[in-house]
Amino acid sequence: MKFRWVGALLLSAAAYYVYLPLPSGVSEPWKLMLLDALFRSFIRASHVAHSLGACHRVHLLNRAISWVEVTDARSSPTVHVTDSTLGAVPTRVFQPIGGAGLKRGVIYFHGGGWALCSGRMRSYDLLCRKMAEDLDAVIMSVDYRLAPEAVFPDQYHDAVAASRAFLSSEVLQRYGIDPERVCASGDSAGGNLAAAVVQELISDPTLTVNFKVQALIYPVLQALDFLTPSYQQNQDVPILYRPLMVQFWLEYLGADASLEPLLLANNHSSLDQPGISAATRSKLNWTALLPAERRKSFQQVVKETGSGGLVGKLPGLTDVRAAPLLAEQDVLRRTPKAYVMTCEFDVLRDDGLMYVRRLRDAGVSVTSDHYEDGFHGCMAFAFLPVMSSVGQRSLNNYIRWLDQNL
Ligand SMILES: *[C@@H]1O[C@H](CO)[C@@H](O)[C@H](O)[C@H]1NC(C)=O
Ligand SMILES: *[C@@H]1O[C@H](CO)[C@@H](O)[C@H](O)[C@H]1NC(C)=O
């Protein structure tokens, strides 16, 4: 009897911890709640360890994720998997076994706020295996350096170095990749790196091979407006809460974590910031760039006065290499055909949708694949044990798009 009471008490405590009111319409809310509870526990534990001085919270979080998730390079009967390097950057390579002729090639950048995760993680390993199998393509999953040891532009430089090596005739020949059919892709912070790399390399006259397509999955693309309609609408939606995204940005740009409230209030992009021109503001002016059904009745938050001079101290905020949405139209115009995946329940939805609009305005052909029931990170949870339904749907559509366009 006593045990039954204790059991019931523990169960309701667990349910209380896991339960979270979610907006109606989000795909499989219980799965998202469980994922969120797990992620929250990891974050809390790492904050405790951090405040006890045991180690940096990001390290602990990464160690926990690695412990649960990192897998060895294991080949299967259909895909040969090896850990190698591209331009001195560690990279896991997935090569389909068999078949004749040259294969298509994809360089992939994993997500994790420039601070977490790895291409060797189970979820990314499974993603790249599936891509290699379904597309009969060589997939290279890049382990660029992470914050806090590496800060902008280190991650970007690693992504560029790996991409240059990927596009070199030596690597293309070694892996039997068709130079006419190569793609840059990534999700979340990895989508940020993929977009930035494409912008950088597409204008490089020394390269003889360049990307045919770019495929961006819920990418992070700007750090000047943390109150876009999607940031406002989804600030309490797991797993990427609004403050967490701001913390990732501060960490990436090597800035002090104490700036978080200031950025959350959009004080860093107030009108008295001399470092932000009207031309720059127009590139992320969502009142002009988003369709009415996404703008809804949300109001733009532009402060008259804020923290003058902050942009001068944190130049990464307006650097296109960190914020590819701020690129000039002339650069966007040269970038290849694009696929941009966005989710309704994601603070980054509008980063992606504004990029779709800016690429189209520049004359680039773009497939905008929007999931009305999607949440940030869903594609990484397309596999067991979570097997998110919207994750599986989006993964299949992403692979289909690559199959038809690469
Ligand atoms: C933001 O700036 C306003 C002035 O526009 C100021 O009153 C407020 O305290 C600032 N908030 C933060 C968090 O810095
Ligand atoms: C943003 O767009 C709106 C609507 O097109 C326009 O009225 C406003 O002046 C623009 N603001 C900036 C900073 O470009």
TrEMBL record:
Compartments, as annotated in UniProt: Cell membrane; Microsome
Keyword Metal-binding (UniProt): no
Its membrane topology: Single-pass type II membrane protein
Name by which UniProt lists this protein: Neutral cholesterol ester hydrolase 1
Taxonomic source organism: Oryzias latipes
Coiled coil: none
Gene label: LOC101172853
Root EC class: hydrolase
All residue ranges annotated as the Alpha/beta hydrolase fold-3 domain in the record: 106-264, 317-379
An example Gene Ontology biological process: lipid catabolic process
Record carries keyword Transmembrane helix: yes
One GO term describing the cellular component: plasma membrane
Catalysed reactions, semicolon-separated: cholesteryl (9Z-octadecenoate) + H2O = cholesterol + (9Z)-octadecenoate + H(+); 1-O-hexadecyl-2-acetyl-sn-glycerol + H2O = 1-O-hexadecyl-sn-glycerol + acetate + H(+); a 1-O-alkyl-2-acetyl-sn-glycerol + H2O = a 1-O-alkyl-sn-glycerol + acetate + H(+); a cholesterol ester + H2O = cholesterol + a fatty acid + H(+)
Domain of life of the organism encoding this protein: Eukaryota
Keywords attached to this entry: Cell membrane, Endoplasmic reticulum, Glycoprotein, Hydrolase, Lipid degradation, Lipid metabolism, Membrane, Microsome, Signal-anchor, Transmembrane, Transmembrane helix
